[in-house]
Specification:
The structure holds two protein chains of two kinds. By secondary structure, chain A is an alpha/beta fold. Helices cover 31% and strands 25% of the residues of chain A. Chain A has a six-stranded mixed beta sheet with strand order 5-6-7-3-8-9, sandwiched between helices. Chain A has a four-stranded antiparallel beta sheet with strand order 11-12-10-13, covered by helices on one side. A three-stranded antiparallel beta sheet of chain A has the order 2-1-4, with helices on one face. The longest helix of chain A has 16 residues. Chain B is mainly α. Classes of the chains: A alpha/beta, B mainly alpha.
Amino acid sequence: MIEATGLTKRYGSKVAVDHMTFTVAPGKVTGFLGPNGAGKSTTMRMIVGLDRPTSGSVTVNGRRYAEHSAPLHEVGTLLDAKAVHTGRSAYNHLLAQAATHGIGRKRVQEVIEMTGLDAVARKRVGGFSLGMGQRLGIASALLGDPQTLILDEPVNGLDPEGVLWVRNLVQYLARQGRTVFLSSHLMSEMAVTADHIIVVGRGRLIADAPVAEIVARAAGTTVRVRSPQAGALEELVRGPEITVTSAEPGLIEITGSTAPAIGEAAAGAGIVLHELTPLHGSLEDAYMQLTADSVEYHSSDVGQPAAPATAPSLTTPGAPASATEGAVR
Amino acid sequence: MTTLSPTADPSTSRNRPRAGAPDRLGVTFPRVVASEWIKFRTVRAAAWTLPITALLMVGMAFLQAWGISQIGAEDFGPVSGASVVTSGWFFAQLAVSVLAILTITGEYSTGMVRSTFAATPRRLPTLWAKALVLVVTVAVTSLVAIALAWVAVQPFASDLGLSLDLGESETLRILLGTPLYLSTIAVFAFAIGTLLRHSAGALAVVLGLLLVIEQVLSVLPLRFFEVISPFLPSTAGTRLIMDDATLEMMDAARDTVSLSPWGGYGVLALWTVVLLAAAAVLVRRRDA
């Protein structure tokens, strides 16, 4: 259980984390999602006492992290795959970390096997790939067999097999009743890994809800239709609540209606359809909408000015879908 | 790379007691020292600098004895056996300073410090443990080096009339004072490394002080520098390891404060304590 209250971190005049209040509950995987520079890593560092909050507080299992007599048994942390001396072997790194808590060599060997580091454990960490570094960081987090895990971008740099492994591992740990808090900017990964998501942008908490709810808040369902008579169909379905966009001749996307309604209307009018695909709002869409006005580093589309960030905030989920076209799809 | 089966149980089969259970002492100072000792001996810095320190001390003692024997002991005047076997102190202090600085700045430059302070979030035990490991290893290394140096100068011992009378207070002061001086310089350099967190910066400050600043200030014919020079860390501290004849000669040449051997060491110790205290305050306060 992680509880942050009014957590704030200021660097000079720049506010990295702005009055964040949230709770990460045990028994599920909680995703911490946000664009680069949103304050995810800073928040995580404050949880384990590496950064001192400017104001506010955060506790783990009821106490400030530094107040635990055996912090590695309480919280396992992967903050940065590079938080290792490059001149030391993985085995010796883990051994030194373990020694602070009187954890034995047997457990060190266990986490090495668990994370698949056997072959490289005696090699100096300086030569590790990013993926191996991540595995070492996860091994280090698991050393104390902690009740709470905080993993900052754990799948960063992992191969597909490694990504799958992390996903299974964190879900397994959560099912054991542990608290798992992992950050990512990969929305697709979060969608399949997390049960609950906390979205942040520019240091502020934007959303804190179950994954399904976040997705449901995405723009209304869009249906993609391919038809040689696309123009006729467009005339047919047009209405006040319905928006039609066309990406190429014969292909339209209809927002505000449903696939059955469109299919029936087309059949009634004798219009031939080659494709009728409901495009569900994905977590990615929801995320883009939520963070559109809080992205720290905007990239503009080549050849045209950046789309104005007019995505609806969470308080107005019913905003017209047309307004979000820049963000959705 | 091998895979972890997703069903592998990270908690293992043992019946896991929850944190706070009696068998989980958690972080204790001896454990932090054990951890720092593992860290110390598993990077190359220590593996190289300590043998180099010993080699420098043995080599310098041999060269010193050989050099005097070439000049002829009669022309050189009285030779202190203790001074000859500890004559490598100057280069040894540079080696141990480098080692001391790297034990802390190496953590900052690699990011290791975040792992370290995640395991010991109170932080200060780590600082004390690192200093303790340094003091002990430097002291042991220099004691061994002095013993080896005594063996190395034996070919010249009878010619030069070298002797080590451990019952003599001056001899004992120099023989035990050299490990003490080198250990203290190590902690001094470690404190500066902790304050600056940067290898190059800390090396520049410490080596600049030992190699250049103190040397230059001690000979500048300006009253201000003449007055403060005796209180500089190394200038003061090395009085502990000079033989009486050298001390007398130095004091006769200058018209300033003459610190006693232990008084001089006390000044170095004070520098070290103050810098270490400042480092401790900053380590607690700064973001890692």
